[in-house]
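Follow-up to my post from last week.
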Amino acid sequence: MNYVDGEFVDTGNCFENISPVDGTVINQVSEADRALVDRAVASGRAALEGEWGKMTLAKRCELLHNVADGIEARFDEFVAAEMADTGKSFFQARTIDIPRGAANFRAFADMVKSQPSECFHTDTPDGRGALNYSVNKPLGVVAVIAPWNLPLLLMTWKLAPAMAAGNVVIAKPSEETPATATLLAEVMHSVGIPKGVFNLVHGFGPGSAGEFLTAHEGVDAITFTGESRTGSAIMKAAADGVKSLSFELGGKNAAIIFADSDFDEAVAGTARSVFTNGGQVCLCTERVYVERSIFDKFVAAMKVKAEALKIGWPLDEDTDMGPVISHKHRDKVLSYYASARDEGATVVTGGGIPEFADDRDNGAFIQPTIFTGLSEQAKIQREEVFGPLCHITPFDTEAQAVAMANGSDYGLAATVWTTNLQRAHRVAQQMEVGIAWVNSWYLRDLRTPFGGVKLSGVGREGGVHSLAFYAEPMNICIKL
Ligand SMILES: NC(=O)C1=CN([C@@H]2O[C@H](COP(=O)(O)OP(=O)(O)OC[C@H]3O[C@@H](n4cnc5c(N)ncnc54)[C@H](O)[C@@H]3O)[C@@H](O)[C@H]2O)C=CC1
Ligand SMILES: O=C(O)/C=C/C=C(\O)C(=O)O
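User reply:
Got it. Predicted complex:
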C-alpha cells in the first residue's frame, strides 16, 4: 500500500509481487499514479510549512529514535518480509538488513545534534570587521529511490539523514521489494511522524512512480542507489529542474591478494566479498587478482569455499545463499556466464542452475561461479553482473595488480590482502575507488564517507557527508 499525507492509499491499480524462492505470487501491490505522486509532493510541502518545519531538533531526533524502536519492536515481521521479497538468507536479514534499518535512524538522529555551523570573522576596510555564520536549512522535498538488494537498509540509509536534517521525503522502493517499506510506513504512522513528512509511493521506474517523482518540479533533491544506467536516466530527468543529486551506483570491484597475505583470511574474506547476498551488493568483489606464486592454491581454495555454500530455503538456519532477486535477473547473470564461456573462460566451479526436485526449481536460484582464463577486455571483466560470481586473474608485480584493479569504468570499492604494512597503505591509497578495505571487507562505520568515483556515483553519503547533502547551508554576514 502507498502512504501519502498520513494515509494508506490504494489506487486500485495493482502489480504482482513474485517470490524469487518458488515463483509464487506473494501479494498485490498498489501502484502509485501521477496524481498520487502530485499529492505526496503537495503534502510534503505543506509539512515543511507546518508542525515539522517548526519542530525543535530535539523533538525531531526523539521521533527518529522512536522509528528505530518501532522497527525493532516488529523485528521478526521485518525479517520475514525482507526474506519473502528477496529470498535472502535468514542470517543475512536478521544480522545485517534489519538491524541496520534501525541503526540508520539512531545514528543520524545522534549525528545531526552535533553538526556544527561555520563562523568566520572577516576584516573590513573600516576596521570594524564583519561576522559570517552559516545556518543549515533543509533542502525541502527529497525523493528517495531505492533498489532491491538491501531494501530496508539502503532506503533508511537515505531517509534517516534526510529527515534528521529536517526534510520531508517521498520514498519509492524497488518494484521487486515493496514489503519492508510498507511496514516502515506503518511504523512512521504509529510513532506519530507528522503527516506529509514521510510518503511512500510504489511502482516502477520509466512511465511510473519513479519517473513521475524524479521529473516532478516540486521535488528539490533526489537520492538514488541502483544501476549506473538508471542514475544517468534520473540525471537527465532532473536536469530541467537543476535538482541536487546524490548517487550510489554500480561497482566492478577488485580484490588484490598478495602472496604475503594471511592465506586463510584472504580466502575466507574474498569468498564472503564475492558471494554475500548472492553477489547482489554493490560492494561485492567480481574481479580477483592473485599474486602468481599462490594463484593455483588460491583458486583451489576458492572453489572449495564456493562449493561448500549451502544454497537453499532462506528460512533454513544453515542456508548461506538464497535465489537471486528474480528470473529476469537470473537470466541476466546467466547471459554473463554464457558470455564468459564464449570468450574462452575456464569454469572452475558452477556456471549453471542448481536442481532441487521441489518448489525451489520454480525459483531464481543460480550456482556460485568462479571463472579464470579471461583477459581484462572480456565482457565479464568490464560490466557489473551483480550475481554470485568472480573471475580470478594472476599477477606478477604490484604495479601490474594496481593497474588491472584500476582499469575499470567503475570505482566503488576495492580490497587489498597483505601483511606488509607499507604495501597495504601504498596500494590502498592508489585504488581509484571511494572505499578501500585492507584485510577486511564490508566493515562499515556509518560516520565514514561512502560512495564511488567514475561510473560508481556522484557525491558521498555517510556521517557528515550525508548531513551536508541533505542540508542547504545559508551564510549570514553581519557588519560589526
Ligand atoms: N549497484 C547497485 O546498487 C544495484 C545494481 N543493480 C543492477 O541493476 C540492474 C537492474 O536492476 P533494477 O532493479 O532495474 O535496478 P535499477 O537501478 O533500474 O532500479 C533501482 C530503482 O530505481 C527505480 N528506477 C528505475 N528506472 C528509473 C527511472 N527511469 N526513473 C526513476 N526511477 C527509476 C527502480 O524502480 C528502483 O526503485 C540489476 O540487474 C543489477 O545488475 C540493481 C540494484 C542495485
Ligand atoms: O551502506 C551499506 O552498508 C551498504 C551499501 C550497499 C549499496 O549501496 C548497494 O549495494 O547498492
